[in-house]
């Protein structure tokens, strides 16, 4: 029996949590889990001391000129010992077959990503779920867009030196990876809770908009055109637009196995599409993970403590 290719799983986090336990339990001989933190976290170090050498703490340090997530991924890639790399986030459940699923995906398709389903934790985030299903779930599934929360690739799939150099001067890790690798999406979805307060949801909206602005600027034009058409249709033909948008969103939800009432918000979200887009573009800063970012251009980022 052929032994599976070893993988290095890179997990940025702020402390030891369920995701660490879930992934560590799935490691095979030769694999490693790199728990990446900004600083040495005693609770993480204590838990790792009780485990075999396949789980390591990587201290990334404070980011300078990039996001904390980008800094953590770069530090993890530098420290990783395997050529096959898996990126993960710590904010969703990793079932027992998660890592083996990504192994099989790579053998079959090469660089591969799973698909997120973003579920709101506060009223505004729940109201905006249809936009996340379209721009997060559907776009990742159909557009060859990587999701940094669950993907696999090998170092030879990218120009690693150039990628790491660029990663240390930008915000979006997966937005940048999209420019370096051809990613295949698989049908598996992972439920990810986002938001928690209205302010946090608004900050996320700004960040998501600016990722598209800097990595796919033509998509911003497309969003503006589509948003304008939808808004006009909703205003001029409110009842047909309400029925058609709700039915179409219900179909998208069903296609991805999303059983949430929030598809009913498709009509008001369509009315708000242009204001939301404008808000994300006009805001000069956003907060993410306790830091305030000013994203001047793709590779020009200022970071401040929040």
Automatic annotation (TrEMBL):
Its main location: membrane. Keywords: Glycosyltransferase, Membrane, Transferase, Transmembrane, Transmembrane helix. This is Glycosyl transferase family 2. Pathway: Lipid metabolism; sphingolipid metabolism; Sphingolipid metabolism. It comes from Haloterrigena turkmenica (strain ATCC 51198 / DSM 5511 / JCM 9101 / NCIMB 13204 / VKM B-1734 / 4k). InterPro entries: Ceramide_glucosylTrfase, Nucleotide-diphossugar_trans. It is found in: Membrane. Gene3D superfamilies: Spore Coat Polysaccharide Biosynthesis Protein SpsA, Chain A. The chain crosses the membrane at residues 224-255, 261-282. GO terms for cellular component: membrane. CDD domains: Glyco_tranf_GTA_type. It is a multi-pass membrane protein. One of its GO terms (molecular function) is glycosyltransferase activity. It comes from the Archaea. SUPFAM superfamilies: Nucleotide-diphospho-sugar transferases. It holds the Pfam family Glyco_transf_21.
């Amino acid at each position: 029996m052929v032994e599976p290719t070893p993988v290095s799983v890179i997990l940025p986090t702020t402390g030891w949590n369920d995701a660490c336990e879930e992934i560590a339990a799935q490691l095979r001989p030769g694999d490693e889990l790199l728990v990446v933190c900004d600083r040495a976290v005693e609770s993480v170090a204590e838990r790792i001391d009780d485990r075999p050498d396949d789980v390591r703490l990587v201290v990334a340090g404070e980011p300078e000129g990039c996001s904390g997530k980008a800094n953590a991924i770069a530090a993890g890639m530098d420290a990783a010992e395997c050529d096959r790399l898996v990126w993960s986030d710590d904010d969703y459940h990793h079932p027992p077959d998660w890592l083996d699923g990504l192994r099989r995906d790579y053998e079959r398709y090469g660089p591969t990503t799973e698909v997120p389903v973003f579920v709101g934790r506060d009223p505004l985030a729940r109201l905006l779920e249809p936009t996340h299903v379209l721009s997060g779930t559907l776009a990742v599934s159909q557009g060859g867009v990587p999701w940094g929360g669950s993907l696999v690739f090998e170092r030879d799939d990218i120009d690693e030196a150039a990628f790491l150099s660029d990663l240390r001067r930008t915000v979006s890790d997966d937005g940048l990876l999209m420019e370096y690798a051809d990613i295949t999406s698989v049908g598996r979805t992972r439920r990810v809770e986002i938001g928690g307060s209205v302010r946090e949801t608004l900050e996320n909206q700004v960040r998501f908009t600016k990722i598209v602005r800097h990595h796919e600027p033509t998509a911003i034009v497309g969003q503006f055109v589509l948003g304008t058409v939808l808004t006009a249709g909703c205003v001029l033909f409110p009842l047909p637009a309400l029925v058609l948008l709700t039915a179409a969103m219900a179909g998208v939800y069903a296609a991805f196995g999303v059983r949430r009432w929030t598809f009913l918000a498709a009509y008001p979200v369509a009315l708000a599409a242009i204001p939301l887009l404008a808000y994300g573009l006009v805001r000069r800063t956003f907060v993410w993970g306790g830091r305030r970012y000013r994203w001047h251009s793709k590779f020009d980022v200022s970071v401040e403590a929040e």
